Amino acid sequence: MGFGFLIYFVLIVAIPLWAQFKVKGAYKKYSKVPSSSYMRGAEVARKILDSNGLYHVGVEETRGVLTDHYDPRSKTVRLSSENFHGHSVAAAAIAAHEVGHAMQDQEEYAFLRFRHALVPVANIGSNFSWILILIGILASMSQMLLLGIIFMAAAVLFQVVTLPVEFNASNRAMDQVVSLGVIRNDEERETKKVLNAAALTYVAAAAVAVLELTRLILIYTGMTRDE
Q: Membrane-spanning residues where (predicted)?
């Protein structure tokens, strides 16, 4: 049991660290490689948005490193300073990926809508599940533990639903940068490496969440068996 827990602990720590290592490595490498079009990330985002009729979506600079995101409330693509001003393959890939989310929003992409609907439930699950779980385990209250698991399952579902949203945005990004001439054919491999590395963070988060949920379900079944 102790050895099994050790393996589990190593996995939930190692998986996210490995994903972060891959992301930072790919970003560091390809942020130094200028794209053939030499367009800034902001220009790439604007070009893709305008080419798809999304004139109302803004492009803004935001602080931080790899803080790039699309804000569906204000209809704004926000790019970190290095990607907003950068001319690199990495900047183009990340800018295009965030525009992919804007395209999903415009088309009311089903998984994106589902994820948005899950936000309030997932927030509640993330904030309160562990309180219920700890009480359930420490006080040997299986029903309290089960309630915590149900709340946690909502947060895990959010992580899982995020995967098709992110992969779809990356696929859209590749299609756009190729069709609009932002990158050349020989740059497709480099662009895919950046997008795939970024996707690993979501895969890792989902994998860890599913592992943790599975462990808690096993604890619950053991507890009810003892009762």
A: 6-23, 117-139, 145-165, 194-220
